[in-house]
């Protein structure tokens, strides 16, 4: 046997060995509190690539580092309790799966990315886990093509907003998919910085600062999410080409709270979203060349708040319904087009008529009245919201122009709202006496009047 | 102050007012408008898949701000300038004028409150049936502000009547007082803020709220319905100025309380000095 | 029971009541007599605490009305000149209300309803009542408490005739129960029928307080004899004077004679004896206005008639 042969044989052997490792049936390791393997890390260290580690019910204290491709699977929700320093589970190998675990008690260093689950790897699946008492929930650190599915993340509610981490933090990553997660009590629900081609779908995010926060992250898409009870449902900053559809931004209330907030972004597109019952529905500062089509913007205190740095945005076929004020502009105008291809928006405050019955109002809709225009320059005047004085001013303006200034019109206001179906909002906490209160009022009133009228 | 006396006077005043066409037509008009606002508010909102409790209530608020002061003022002004023979008989009884005033105010209040609650109750049922329970507490707070507003303008009406004497004069003055508080005052304040410097203007506008019960009721109701964020930055500044949200609400309530007490005491004083 | 001392009430510069002083004893009925605008109503309003006096004081049962109006008013019941009630209330509700206000037992209501013949209409709203019925309801309210002092402003003025008669009966009953009554009127017959004394107010001043007998005497004394003659002649006037008349004046066929009542017969006889043919004769009583005039003249200008001097001295003077 010559050297060549020997080398060839060794290569064959190596190939065979490699083949064996790939095709060998994956071993299953079981971890249980009283068993021979009482620690998760023990199992990880023992397992080979592709093995599965089953974790039986119980609490397992100790951080876990996955440095090889493994599946970590809980049976009946075991608790992986971290040591209170750095991250509870750290993934350093691609293609891992973490499933059915409760992960808690991470470290507390924001700068160290102390998380429930920290990823330094790609192609992983993080599914059906619950993360609690963690600084960051799931942190994707230069990690691509991961899938985060149906996790419940609850941040440290007892910390100040600025001391918490994000529920899901993605940095410098691409192609990740985030689906069906529920996130609350974190700083931001999902924070994406330099993240590209991320898909965010069917998540439910509430009670935190920004539900979904893009920073310098282009070409992302989010759909069918619900964002409520936060400072802002979503915040899109310094990002381009963000597409979003069918999301619900509801009841984000506070002195500067928004359904969605745009800052220095462009080429975004919003369709069939519902912005309902927020302090401000849509806030835009330096948003450029974006389109809003077929959205519902309803029951917000202010439908749109804009700085005049915004420009070239188009609103068409949106339903603006029962907002206290339609637009508040800081500066001159929103620089928006209010129609596209001859179709404008539906405004519930529009009082015009449609004689030619083409579905479009014959009179352009003046989006802001005199009072609302003044409000932009003198915010204190908002205290006169719903005052007869403000209405008198608005009314008299219809007869005599009171204040000259830039005005915005929807030239093709729709006579009927666009037909769109909005998924029911999450059930509010029910107060049991709801109908009884007005009924009691009615009863008391009839009693008093009846007593008086009885001769 | 004899509570039984006040009770008797209040009862009689309630009788009279629950039978007169003023109260009944107010109750009817208010209920019809409130019902219309809530029904169409909820229905149009429901069509597109959401229910707007706040906006509907805010529209109701507008109705309250116009109607309640007007009805209270005129009813009270008319009641306190009753026929000479009737008031002479009443005032010659062994009761003090303060008791008569208080009793009549209580009776008038019961009548106006019943009429107002009738409309609120109907509207509330419509809203509750369509929107569910959310905000029912806020709705009650809002109704409370409306009633407080009614009380204040009943007392102011009594004061106007005490100054005026004759029914026609009192009626005319009551309408002017209504116009002043509902419209003129705010327009004057808004005008003033353009003249004042930025910082002073803000303080002025906050303080000016306390000079007008209609403003206080409006701001208080909107705060209850939508929380202070409904006023945006101005609301934040106001809450800061008044020292927190709870304190702001308390201050508004106290301000409204003063608006009951001061005109009431003034009316008693004017009335005590008066010859019938 | 009622002590009015130096009561003064001004409306602007107009002096409505000018230093009026008057005492009314318990059980006494006193009429305030005077022409319209003489200050009767204002006096009563000061008494009931409806108006505030500018000077002097009013005491009811020893209680100062201005200082303790509630306690003083507990002793009195007042009937305004033109009483009114809300149209939408029934008679019963009105009475129940005043019953509660004065904390009276509810059984008083039936009594006054019967006394004023309102039983049948007690469930009717006052709006359907005639003027007289309303006034009767007013009287019923005034009588409801059976107060020690009853103050009535022109009580009979707007009552219907039956009501007036019934009212007089009621007042007599009230008097018999020892209640004090003070009322204003411009009807002399009321004074005659109801009052023990009459206080005469002219232009806000109390010009006389007379017992009803004295007033009646004065009235009779002031009466003139009017004689219709078949043949008028100046001679008969002289005859009348000679027969004791203080004055005699011929106007056409009528001879007007001023004399004392007991001289009338002698004068008529003297005229007949002098050949005068008397067709008819009347005594002409003076009208209320004439009486006022006499008092006004007496107080304002000219020498006071001798019979009034004494009376005026009987009135307590300001001091």
Explain how this protein is built:
The complex is a heterotrimer of chains A (455), B (276) and C (319). Chain A is of the alpha/beta class and 455 residues long. Helix content of chain A is 15%, strand content 36%. Chain A is built from 5 helices and 41 strands. In chain A, the strands form 4 sheets. A 14-stranded parallel beta sheet of chain A has the order 1-2-5-8-11-14-17-20-23-26-29-32-35-38, with helices on one face. A 13-stranded parallel beta sheet of chain A has the order 3-6-9-12-15-18-21-24-27-30-33-36-39, with no helix packed on it. Chain A starts with a helix and ends with a helix. Mean pLDDT of chain A is 89; it is low at 426-432. Chain B is mainly α and 276 residues long. Chain B has one domain (3-273). The model of chain B has no long low-confidence stretch (mean pLDDT 88). Chain C is α/β, with parallel strands linked by helices and 319 residues long. Chain C is built from 12 helices and 14 strands. The relative contact order of chain C is 0.13. Chains in contact: A-B, B-C. The B-C interface holds B 4-5, 8-9, 11-12, 15-16, 19-20, 82-86, 88-89, 91-96, 273, 275-276 and C 11, 45, 48-52, 69-71, 73-74, 76-86, 88-89, 93, 97-98, 100-103, 138, 141, 151.
